[in-house]
Amino acid sequence: MGLYKYYSIPSDRMGALWTLLSIRGACILEFGTAGTTRFALNNFHKMKGVQNGQLYTTHLDENDIAMGDVRRMDKAIDDIVKEGLATNIFLMSSTVSSVIGIDLEAYCYIYREKYPQINFIYISNDGFKGDWTLGVKNVLETLVAHIPKEVNRSEEFTYNIIGACADDYNYEADCMEIDRIMKAGFNGENICTLTSNTSINEIENMGAAHLNIVMRSEGEEAAKVLERNFGTPYVIGRPYGLKGTLEWIKKIEEAAKISINKEFVENEEKLLKEKIDEALLVSKNSSVCLSGHYDVVRSIRDFVRDEIGININNIWCSSPSLSTEEVPFYEERIWEEIILKGDYDILMGNGVVTNIGKENSKKLQIDLPNLVYSRDEHVDKAYVGFKGALCILDKLIR
């Protein structure tokens, strides 16, 4: 790991743990030392993650490392099964056990033969494969490949949300807005929100849905697995702003072959247009710096540029794995210089970025990490959908 002034980039192992921890009924067993597991938990709670799953670690000593001894793991699994603590056990390596070459995937086959009533699932993210977004992507795909069961399609219109995870800033309020639009617009019912608010049982029933709504790039492969296995169509994208939300709704209508409640849309559109007109008077021709998750900053850029007339001073994403020419990833020294010396009126980014921004600029947090831990600060303040656009506009006008 390099030297960082503000914060380091989480590894794929951190992303995998954060994605699994919120699942009710999940049992995660990490073959490794306890210290880094505690680090993952601490950061998970600072992100406002809700831990519904169980997390255990075997711990390791020098003899385990030198001899490749797995008796601690055997004993841990025996205890978990004996106590009836889980029907699905996710086996993960730590960076230490990966270095010594323990083949956990092979051990999953051994444990399945010993305990046929338990679903052992191997999670390959060990901290060496890249940044946290790769861990999120792998876990989402692994979950839908191993857990959903053959079920009948529901009679009423239902959907799943894929990619709303604890590392996604404001995920709770954003999911509430998606559910509100789907209920009021399509009379739709949510089967599973993967993974911020779900259970093993809900994941098992994902195949009953008529549509999968993918909230981030890392969830597309999972949606493709569900499409192959259950024939479920999917839409991908985050609905920011009026134009972005209407386009997102159109994609849902086309994919699910269903029409939205026009009266609902007209009422929402009327309220939002009034606020956009107000924002145009205040913010037009101002400039913004955008920093955060690739999908978030790209979609917010389109909203503020195309609907409010705000100029894009600079834009970059927080993950090297998601970097593109359109939205690049910047090293810390580069984005620090942009923030400290840049010519902008509005700054959107994580808690650290907004904290060091120019005092006379308007600041809006759209990404993690948080600078100050707060459990309730952003509940009911969505950034996506109709309500989310109103919230962002209110913050820009103030």
Automatic annotation (TrEMBL):
Residue ranges of domain Nitrogenase/oxidoreductase component in the record: 13-396
Gene3D superfamilies: Nitrogenase molybdenum iron protein domain
SUPFAM superfamilies: Helical backbone' metal receptor
GO MF annotations, alphabetized: oxidoreductase activity
Pfam family, one: Oxidored_nitro
Transmembrane segments: none
UniProt name for this protein: Nitrogenase/oxidoreductase component 1 domain-containing protein
